[in-house]
């Protein structure tokens, strides 16, 4: 993609006045000319007045407006029943509340979706709310006389706006050490990421306010009987799937053969004609990455057509990362270009209006095996928990001794134990001295944990892993064919799972037992009784080895090395076939190549 081509990730552009009217008008005119010239006819001017301007893709970013024009919403919004709302719904909020904060709070309490909401008052004040899960990508930069908000930064938009932005060396260093830092931080200097669930003041009249917090959901929850908890999960998943499938035409589901995507397929099959659904499965040449038998069983149970594709390590061409580099940040998800292209082809062949996955299920249903679960149980049940089965279950699931588990429970009785780390950082030893000097470990912590210190440790892990899964909302190539939806990461599902304790979600030795039982009658027996997951590390390792000549040339003489962010001798030693074939973190060079492609895009190489 050249810098002047239409950007497939640019679903909208918003400009908000913050100073002189004439300066704002001139800036809007310059962006309008650039949109006309480079937007490919997809971005249309929707609102343009003396306070704000909005351009958007009508097929990807619907616009809702209250009758008085004081509430504007770009994106998809649903009420608590899963019904898509209209402008009249915003009229009721506008009439009942009169400040940006009260209107935003009312919206959060009665609706959910993927959106960016703007609240305007009569005095020229504008506040903005990004949906609390962060499905809608939203970055902002400050211009002379205005704020510019967009999900992507193509060259032509940056030039037209006169924005002074570029890769931030400190944030790139953090990214290399811990890729998930991109979920909560902008990687560009001069650009900030709008935090989800936070009311952002764009005119400087008030401070930003956190209006939605996972910890608040946890604290407001009450204990549930197991049958009630199962019903909570079913209602939330069905609601998310019903809302996101309505009016979408054909639906393409990525069906891995695992539990989570089978739950999504089963939910869709309850409410959508099977003729409107296709499933696609990707298998590797290695047995642990081939789950076609399970995918076939799930598709057959619901009468769904299954598309089967095989991916090969030898056909995965890392050199193509350069031509697909994003603008706001490097691609960190959907890096198998061959698989992405097969998904695009299938979506177009079937005329899919939306692509759905089971991503996020491991986190929301708590697949992780941590001994901290027993500590959470002890906080709820006191001394009796030491003599019950939960400590033994936690020890067996985590593969540790019962003495360790009892020790953690005892220590927590005296002083709150810190949660085990739920975030996997890369080997920072590959970083250059310059990069290591730039790193501040506090940036690795998700803002979702800022007010979670008093929560039980396994619940803090639960929040952290859900926060990390927001990486799946980052742009992928398949987004060019159809919107990509992850129903298990929808706000109703996340809130339902946060309202349950971790011991309620993971009450026995099985993997994700509550979710498994809640959807039992929609799952083939082979998936219901399976206690494990597919594995693709051998495939990934072979793909890295197959691309070693390219990787060595691309990385050893690239931007990461020339900027002093990666230590060249250490990287040279790591890019060795004997080292990589059995390496646990062999995907590191693939991520580095994606970051390299992004840096080269900005440097013009």
UniProtKB/TrEMBL annotation:
InterPro entries: Asn_synthase (IPR001962), Rossmann-like_a/b/a_fold (IPR014729). This is Asparagine synthase (Glutamine-hydrolysing). Residues 233-600 form the Asparagine synthetase domain. SUPFAM superfamilies: Adenine nucleotide alpha hydrolases-like. GO terms for biological process: asparagine biosynthetic process. Transmembrane segments: none annotated. GO terms for molecular function: asparagine synthase (glutamine-hydrolyzing) activity. The lineage of its organism: Bacteria, Pseudomonadati, Pseudomonadota, Alphaproteobacteria, Sphingomonadales.
